[in-house]
Design brief:
The chain is mostly helical. The chain has one domain. It is built from six helices and no strands. The chain is elongated and about 70 Å long.
């Protein structure tokens, strides 16, 4: 690969195009918004993202066997699990097992992980 200035300019332009949405968003973020984001704890960020996903998906599960199922805005247990529920990935291993032909004849599930 020849690193002539013309080729480098082309690479830079391609990168600008690729990241254009991020660059536009970044240009519209105020210093106060940046400070709030930087001071947000992981738990707070997770809760905020869950609220945003809930609004975006209108409370509906997006994938998996429960796709389309409406979830209440305030979950009965940990609110931090709501994101994975909305995405359809909550307890994915258990759900896959429940819907698998290998376990279809079973009548009971023993949940050893419930806390």
């Amino acid at each position: 690969m020849d690193n002539t200035p013309l080729e480098l300019d082309n690479i830079i332009e391609l990168e600008r195009e690729f990241f254009s949405d991020i660059l536009t968003t970044n240009a519209n973020i105020t210093p106060d918004m940046k400070a709030a984001f930087r001071n947000e704890t992981i738990a707070e960020r997770r809760q905020r993202l869950c609220r945003e996903l809930y609004q975006e998906f209108e409370g509906r599960v997006m994938e998996g066997p429960f796709r389309g199922l409406f979830l209440e805005p305030t979950p009965a247990w940990s609110a931090s699990d709501q994101c994975s529920m909305l995405l359809g990935t909550y307890e994915a291993e258990v759900v896959a097992l429940l819907f698998s032909p290998a376990t279809a004849h079973r009548d009971h599930l023993v949940n050893l992980g419930g806390g």
